[in-house]
Predict the structure.
Amino acid sequence: MCGIIGYIGSEKASPILLRGLINLEYRGYDSAGMAILNSKGVECKKAAGKIEEIHKRLNFLDLEGDIGIAHNRWATHGEVNDINAHPHFDSTKTIAIVHNGIIENYRELKEKLSTHTFESETDSEVIAHLIEEELKRGLSFEEAFISTISQLEGNYAILAIKNGEEKILAARKGSPLVVGIADHGTFLSSDIPSFLEYTKKVVYLQDYDVVVATKNGVRIYNLSGNEVSRPVDTVEWDAEQIKKGGFEHYMLKEILEQSETIQRAIQQDESVVNRIADEIREAYGIFFVGCGSSYHACLTGSYLFSKIANTHVNVALASEFENYEHFLTENTLVFAISQSGETADVLEAVRAAKIRGSRVIGIVNKMGSSLTRESDEFLLMNAGPEICVLSTKTYTSQVALMALLAYALAGKYEDGVNRLQGLYMDIYNLTSRSMREHLRYLAEMLVNEEHIYLIGRGLQYATAMEGALKIKEVSYIHAEAFAGGELKHGPLALIEDGTPVMVFVARDNEKKVISNASEVKARGGFIIGVSADRHEVFDYWVKVPECEDLNPIAQIIPIQILAYQLAVLKGLDPDKPRNLAKSVTVI
Ligand code: F6R
């Protein structure tokens, strides 16, 4: 959700920023823009639309200069149009800012600036005008910037440049911002992939950090103006890892990576996992909290904890968690699950839990993300960058970690590791070319459907829910999951001649779910079985290995591939579904 990038150094900034914007596209955006500082002042180009199209029309590379800031916008305040695109300026057109986040008190701030004329409907523009106002009081650019930041309520990652000042100023609170340190210059960005081809050296900023980046390097201050020190880290990801690896889309590449990523997810310190298992035993009340696919991983986790470790956990959508907050005590253990570690609803749940003294454990993919900083402890998924907006490999890594915890809780850590390791070949086969062709054939049968239903029981119900999300978000076909036992309580009314219904079957619950499938078939439904064994009721069969507790990993992979094929057949871009963003940093 919005991406910002700034560069200051010895190289021409516009090509670097343009590449950075393209590398940040995966976060979702509707407009883009760039401002460069040069001898003419601050020059800017911005518009609504896709970066490539904007660049074709406006040519960002015309902008000369070695200091600049750029932005991919995802509209929150004000419609999608050229004027609302960032960067935004003050009234003198000498200060340009880009902002990611939401300024909650922008209306009050605008009222204070009643003599100013605002061009856009955004909350962000107020930042440039506030800096202008502070400068009028005789403050330096840095002082004016800090004073402005101190007046903001809400979330922000901000970059600012000013005519006559050879520097970029930056600040963050609640929205991601990292510094990249290359030989030829400094980057300030929402995310590491935007500059990874230039450097692996990064500094993770903390809330209320203010950065002054000049051609001589970077200094970091707190809001009182005192210098603070932040360590320089080296990221493990290489530039190749974030490229498409020869595939047409990141989604497919990331689906195919899962035989590896499951193995990386289980590379955990055994003593840490066992200690967390002890904490679970001692806790009075356990919550799994997440959104979207991560919520489905939570749901899967709750079935796994029940099945493997005989332990009850509460599962809550992070956006609904406030309704349960009054149950939290110092003895409650909250697991916050998020691939990005930046999802606003999840972070809000984490903060609410911490206020009540509950311990929070994150399960997260992004090192350095807000969740890694705000949770008391975290387990990393180690899935590598996931560029496609849809969660695929991070979902199965989350489930793998949930399973590992459940095994540890049952005193069977080794057994859990062995079982998860055993998935390697199963997943390899599930993503093979012949499997993809089989699913392509199924996609051709389904591509013109308006509705697809998915049913399962227990672990397979959670898989059906995740499968429905994958299909709908990437192919825009309405897909809905039902617990098998619920069919007769309403959903059966939806079944007509030929209605496609996917049925997830595990050997330990096949009787009941096959009987549910028969109820559907009797009403004309077209049954697509996802199972290890063929059943008579199936009209089409997707053969998956029987993986018992780990069925949720094996059974979702064909649906991820099917969803991908549906999107491709419909001519859609699976990596960037409409209206969605990779990292949802607003509530
Ligand atoms: C679905 C998807 C979303 C995310 C959700 C939570 O494919 O990607 O539903 O799962 O927005 O995101 P994280 O895991 O980053 O908190």
The chain has 18 helices and 25 strands.
